[in-house]
Amino acid sequence: MSVTKVYSFESNAHVSQALGEFIAHASSEAIAKHGRFTVAFSGGSLPATACKHLRDMQSVDFSKWYVFFADERCVGLDSVDSNFRLVREELLDPLMQQGRSVPADQVMVINDTLTDSTQQVADDYLGKMQSVFTGAKTKFPEFDLVLLGIGPDGHTCSLFPNHPLLEERTAWVAPIDDSPKEPPHRITLTLPVVNHARKVAFVASGAGKASTVRAIVDERNVHLPATHVAPVNGDTYWFLDHAAAKGLSVNKPSEFKL
Q1: Within the chain, which residues score under 70 in pLDDT?
Q2: Separation CA 226–CA 230 (nearest Å)
């Protein structure tokens, strides 16, 4: 049975430490079970929070990681808008300096020569996903972990309120050309893919996120895209600082345990 666990910490620094431990544990579990760890990162502040301590955890076997992106902006890989660039700076480059790299062919980036067409970018990215998630029974990929943030409007990945992509039921990855948040041209994992993950972890900090967190976690406001993240056979975890968690009264935070 799918469960939702909410954790609250004194500061974003404490969120980062606990989240790093959580990811390391999820990685070890997945590698022990099926020899690899498949993880999808979203952008914004999440890569910095997720990777600050994780990159120095010597127990993690990054050679078995397959890194994907929950959404990506259709920009060059060196652009300041690139989610890949954030993960590269916060995790991949530091690991390379330590001699503990994620193999380059296991980091699934967009083809930034195709960015004039979001559909072509999405099609190419689908091929990369299919090269890792193969099998006759693979209707949707099953990520070991999907790491997500939330916007003040409740968006997650690049799935925005009232957008037709919220109704997508078959595609793995979809293009979007009218993102209400810049830049407008992106690709995103779809809800069915997120909801087939073994673990989904949301990360949010600051009082500015408190009302949105409450609307999703306690009130289950169906108008907010993040509310529709409900793994079919997996679990959902919320990593919050006390400021972001202060409005919760139904699903109150529990003690963090691995």
Answers
A1: 1, 136-137
A2: 9
Average pLDDT over the chain reads 96
The pLDDT value recorded for residue 134 is: 85
Question: Whole-angstrom Cα distance, residue 53 to residue 100?
Answer: 15
CA 96, CA 89: separation in Å to the nearest integer? 11
pTM above 0.70, yes or no: yes
**DSSP strand E in 85-135: where?**
none
> Could you tell me which of 14, 4, 5, 3 has the C-alpha nearest to residue 243?
14
Quick one: CA torsion of 2, 189, 237, 108, rounded to 10 degrees? Answer: 120
- Closest by Cα among 236, 38, 51 to 156: 236
3 state DSSP class of 39: strand
